[in-house]
Amino acid sequence: MSEDQKNERSIWHVYQGKLGAPLTLAVLVFVGCLLGILSRPENHLASLWLANATMAGFMLRVPASVSPLGWLLSTLAFLAADLLTGSGLFKAGILTVANLMGVAATYTVYKRLSKGAIGIRQPMSVLQLAIACACGAAASGLVGAVANPLLFDGGVLIGFIFWSVTEFANYIGILPVILSMPEPAARARRIVINSAAPIRWRGMLPVFGLFVSCMGAIVIGGPGAIAFPVPALLWCAVTYSVFVTALLTLMASAWMLISFSHSLPYDESLLISLRLGVFLIVPGPIMLSSVMQSNNKLLVTLKQMAARDGLTGVSNRLDFLDRAQEQLNAASSSVGVMMIDLDHFKEINDTHGHSAGDAVLIAVAGRIQRCLRSSDLLGRLGGEEFAILIPDRSAEELIAVAERIRHTVADSTVGLPNHRSIPVTMSIGLVVVENGNGLSIERLLIEADSALYRAKSAGRNRVVLSGAPEPVN
Ligand SMILES: Nc1nc2c(ncn2[C@@H]2O[C@H](COP(=O)(O)OP(=O)(O)OP(=O)(O)O)[C@@H](O)[C@H]2O)c(=O)[nH]1
Questions:
Q1: Side-chain-side CA neighbours of residue 61 (13 Å)
Q2: In terms of C-beta distances under 8 Å and separation of at least 24 residues, what long-range contacts does 252-259 make, across chains too?
Q3: Cα–Cα distance for residue pair 392/325, rounded to 1 Å
Q4: Is 268 a catalytic site residue?
Q5: Which of 151, 170, 185 marks a domain boundary?
Q6: Does residue 239 sit within a domain?
């Protein structure tokens, strides 16, 4: 483990500790409140209130923070931020109750719906999150209905609607970012991209498209402009990870909200419509990104399964032929191809049963694999027949490897499921070419197979080099 990784792990563990987690939670709440209060207009709710969603998200990601101490310190953080910025105790108290009720509802509902599977790993998570955000927003809205007449001389219904919508916008924008945030030690490529493809300059185009469409929305304006970034956000969703998509969606939404709030005349119902409209766009790209992510994972698993031999776990015939041909085409020095066939394998099946035969195949594949380097290729072509491609070795070295494989299998018995042990031997046909370029793997396998045939005819349990008149041992 590198020094950087050690540092990342230790930081992660500090804020996951029993005391560290509640303290971190309270600090995040305090900082989130200050940012919200400083950016909020006089006598109105802030456009972007980070504290509540950050608190709910942190509690979901770091269970150690959910303790009586965590709740107590966070309550003090909410109160302190309001009192320090000039609110009276009554106002600070009501605002804190509204915040805490929203956080508690969001946290509880999401935890229940997701059954503890925190994080946006499947498309359903986005729906569960939207429901949890709506519940949290409604809980805050209830306090808002009471608080609006008391604090802002407003109506009860408008208080409920305005607080609910504002809170919903904050939760649905911020929570996906926190819940999909990768662990500190995650690899950079996995954090950014939504596929196995490497990051290239073309990977930046969706961000550029998003920037252009956000600018276009401001320049052209009008009621349709909030939908301008949608195509670019969907493009981001099919390109980037859920985390990056959630982050870009939040940034685009916040940008749209702030720009439009300033250009519109102050009107509560217009503001409600704008906040709701902008943030109802959020779930779409995130859901698409999570669909892409789970499809890509499934595809990788399917590809891996399709390439493996179900019994021994080594490459199957098709995968071996594909990869061997690639290696041959790329080879610039000598390459060896071996055909391996177990001796009298039918007898093993007939005497000890088919499952014993299977156990022998698994054991033999494991023993062969241990004689090879990671750059060598081993495949099971079918039945009790294996093939190997070994690049960058001289003919002498290749004969030595073949002999080592033969001895590794022949020198110790193989244990069977019936607790008996039996000796197993194999015959190997080897072909060596100076340069693989231009040759087909099928052609080399035919040559190796005819050498194998000679090894069988000469008495089995031996290696025969193609072109050589006699077995090499
Ligand atoms: N247990 C098991 N047996 C298999 C599998 N695939 C093929 N076989 C058996 O492998 C045996 C191959 O026998 P043969 O081709 O006659 O070869 P052999 O008995 O090894 O004789 P030589 O190759 O001449 O030494 C057959 O009995 C097949 O049924 C498998 O996946 N599992």
A1: 25
A2: 252/210, 252/214, 253/169, 253/173, 253/278, 253/279, 253/281, 253/282, 254/47, 254/48, 254/173, 255/214, 256/214, 256/217, 256/225, 256/226, 256/229, 257/47, 257/48, 257/169, 258/47, 258/48, 259/217, 259/218
A3: 15
A4: no
A5: 185
A6: no
Residue-wise burial string across 157-183, b where 16 or more C-beta atoms lie within 10 A, e elsewhere: ebbbbbbbbbbbbbbbbbbbbbbbbbe
Q: Of all protein residues, whose CA lies closest to atom 14 belonging to ligand 1?
A: 346
Ligand 1 centroid to residue 386 C-alpha, Å? 12
**172 in the same domain as 29:** yes
CATH value at residue 330: 3.30.70.270
- Compute the radius of gyration of the chain from its Cα atoms: 33
Q: Which domain holds residue 447?
A: 317-465
Amino acid found at 75:
T
Number of domain units in the chain: 2
Cβ-proximal residues to 433 (8 Å cutoff; 6+ apart), any chain: 334, 335, 337, 439, 444
Residue 434 lies in a domain: yes
List the pLDDT tens digit at each of the 473 positions of the chain. 444 445 445 555 556 677 889 999 999 999 999 988 877 665 566 667 889 999 999 999 999 999 999 999 999 999 999 898 888 899 899 999 999 999 999 999 999 998 877 778 777 888 999 999 999 999 999 999 998 888 888 889 998 998 899 899 999 999 999 999 887 655 555 556 555 455 567 788 999 999 999 999 888 888 888 889 999 999 999 999 999 999 999 999 988 888 887 777 767 788 888 888 888 888 899 999 999 988 988 999 999 999 999 999 999 999 999 999 999 988 888 999 999 999 999 999 999 999 999 999 999 999 999 999 999 999 999 999 999 999 999 999 999 999 999 999 999 999 999 889 999 999 999 999 988 777 899 999 999 999 999 999 999 999 999 875 444 55
Cβ–Cβ under 8 Å, residues 218 and 96: no
Residue 450 domain flag:
yes
Catalytic residue among 42, 326, 347, 384: 384
Residue 311 Cβ inside 6 Å of ligand 1? The answer reads yes
* Domain stops at, among 166, 185, 204: 185
Query: What CATH number does the domain containing 45 carry?
Result: 1.10.1760
Protein residue whose Cα sits closest to atom 29 of ligand 1: 346
Rounded CA separation 378/302 (Å): 20
Q: Is residue 449 part of a domain?
A: yes
Residues 177 and 321 in one domain: no
Q: 268 CB under 6 A from ligand 1?
A: no
357 lines ligand 1 (CB under 6 A): yes
The ipTM (two decimal places) reads: 0.95
